[in-house]
């Protein structure tokens, strides 16, 4: 219920600032009980989508209040936002974070995170189809964040994991061959393992440049 109503709000079915229909109308529209509806409304309130006030009712909050840095919200939004617009916004976020994360990973990786990154890279090298490549590619980028040794960056990977997986799959299908960016990933991997922070930053920026070209193409 929260997914259906939240997606409807994000899609624009209920405009920011507008009141939601009364409970009876929502129960009929979504075919749910009052208990289910109220639990869904509490969930959406916690995500910043709606607010309830005495004598005013339940209204959709302004977009600035929406907590899109929530894994559910980000996933819902990715399904209803204009595809190119959303892909570019996710790409902008990655370009701000991942080159610096690669530099941190080069400086701070430990044996365990280096081994995990190595396994992810080996899986990319050995991938035989798009799905194997995408799983390995996603794991590679999550490993880079883990290797930063910054506990605040690891939840970021969990946050964008579902939407990033979708972007990686689309990029692989748009390329001439699914593993067309293997050389760029290898450059990132080798720089991190060599503890070359400036090289890792440049290599990740180059990799993301290839990604942007595919998105815009």
UniProtKB/TrEMBL annotation:
Keyword Electron transport: no
Domain HTH gntR-type stretches: 1-63
Keywords: DNA-binding, Transcription, Transcription regulation
Pfam family, one: GntR
GO molecular function: DNA binding; DNA-binding transcription factor activity
The keyword Transcription belongs to this UniProt entry's keyword annotation: yes
InterPro entries the UniProt entry points to: GntR_C, TF_FadR/GntR_C, Tscrpt_reg_HTH_GntR, WH-like_DNA-bd_sf, WH_DNA-bd_sf
PROSITE patterns according to UniProt: HTH_GNTR (PS50949)
Protein name: GntR family transcriptional regulator
